Amino acid sequence: MFAAWLGYLLDGFDFVLITLVLTEIADEFGLSTVEAASLVSGAFITRWLGGALLGGMGDRYGRKPAMIASILLYSLGTFACGFAWNYHSLFAARLAIGMGMAGEYSASATYVLESWPVRMRNRASGFLISGYAAGTVLAAEVYKWVVPSLGWRWMFWIGVLPIVVALWVRRALPEAGDWQAEVHGTGTRTGTVPGGEAPGAGEPAGPGTFDGQDKLDAPPSPPTAAPAPTAETPAQAQAQAPAQEPAPVPAPAATPGTGESGPATAAVRGGPPRRPNPFRPLFGDPRRAVANSVLAILATVALFLVFTPLAAGLTWPLALVAAGCLIAFAVQLGGRRSWVVYVALMVTVFCAFLYSWPIQSLLPTYLKTELGYGADEVTDVMYYAGFGTMLGCWLAGFVGDWLGTRRAYALTLLASLAFVFPVFAVQNSLVGLGVLLFGLLALSQGISGLLPKYIAGHFPVETRAASLGFVYNVGALGGAVAPVMGAELAEGMTLAQSLAILTFGLTTLVIVLVGLNVPYRLNRYLLRRTGHHDVTEDHLAAVTATQKPRPAD
């Protein structure tokens, strides 16, 4: 757990460096506010691709190799930023950072969630994401000491240090228990106890847990029979031997979205394990492989043009092209029965980034330009903000295990609305601003510690990392839109007003999407329309060791 948390801490450190030195970079390269904000957006353009590819690597080869590859990629990308000679070279390095960060999210989240007991997985999720906030606090402290004396480039050169963590992870970290058990047929599921039951199996689902529909809240295996007495002598062993050979174990049912039949374990197949292929729906035959490769290139080029000055008035048509390509991928990955889950989760995450990233990306700029704070004062405020987010992630984990993931998410966001406008009303009190920011980010962004748990619970082990990586990082494009939207709104009003409006309005929308369980409700509606009522075949279903399948209604 600590290794994954440390990797995510360094991920946060590397990623937020650009927001701290944005004004220095803009001055050196002569960038406008919108151009400077697009450097923040640049890392989001390739996140969907990095999340899918590195997530697929995690499903096929293990969570640990994917985590190592992700750390190496974002570290080298950050190091390259220090050598940037103009806007375009810096933008290119940010693309590599985005891919690595996306892979780190899916690899670390699935690793931790599959390694902790079922009853503590909200806490595991919150503790993991708190590492990102800790990274922002660390980056703010390093900024105070490094930039005034050495310049902004040294901030990025320091970002190569996570490579040491990658080497340590490669040597010391075991593989995630659930993945090991599901794919290799070795190890044990961390969510089970002897007898095959999850803690609390047979009890009604707690509030906010999708009424028992969370994949991570229950192991799929039925309880095993009690073992026969162990033979102590050869004669006893012969007497205990069955008179007939046992019937062959039937192959498990197909897992939606994988194109393969059930858990690829050696125990089930009677041979070497068959590794999952989460992208079989996209590349299962030559024609489909060519078509989807073209779609991937088209989506990447369209996003690149959208978030650079090259779009030249074609922003909306290009954005629609990119959205169409990504939705096409989601529909194919989800299949007829689950595509709506992929799309609805993408929209939910997109809105979550839209409410949180205007503050994350433009807060240092707001403090410097509109409030006139210097480097030391900005560092103090960022410290309050980062520590508030980190504490909020910890608390979110406990509240999530108490109230349930969905209910905790919605209620905490609702409480955060009370802080939005007061934060941007404070003008001359550094302490007051720090306290209000601490409260706002502890509630609004700290609750994002439950997001990995909320999303990953919709997908089985065999496709969990790729599905989480794709869905989350397509939605993360909201983080690319957010700073540009905030900067453009600020051209007609103050930056404080634009940030407050975006945060309040989009937080309210996320409360509705999560609180009303929109992804599950939409999927249930479509299942009813197509005559399917058995939710045990749906990714939102969860059957504990002693529970019977719940009907779709």
From TrEMBL:
Keywords: Membrane, Transmembrane, Transmembrane helix. It is a multi-pass membrane protein. Residues 227-244, 254-271 have a biased composition (Low complexity). It comes from Streptomyces daliensis. It holds the Pfam family MFS_1. InterPro entries: MFS (IPR011701), MFS_dom (IPR020846), MFS_trans_sf (IPR036259). Residues 182-281 are annotated as: Disordered. The keyword Iron-sulfur does not apply. The chain crosses the membrane at residues 36-54, 66-85, 91-113, 125-146, 152-169, 289-308, 314-332, 339-357, 381-399, 408-425, 431-456, 468-487, 499-520. PANTHER family: CARBOXYLIC ACID TRANSPORTER PROTEIN HOMOLOG (PTHR23508), SIALIC ACID TRANSPORTER NANT (PTHR23508:SF3). It is found in: Cell membrane. This is MFS transporter. PROSITE patterns: MFS (PS50850). Its main location: membrane. Residues 1-523 form the Major facilitator superfamily (MFS) profile domain. Residues 193-205 have a biased composition (Gly residues). GO terms for molecular function: carboxylic acid transmembrane transporter activity. GO terms for cellular component: plasma membrane.
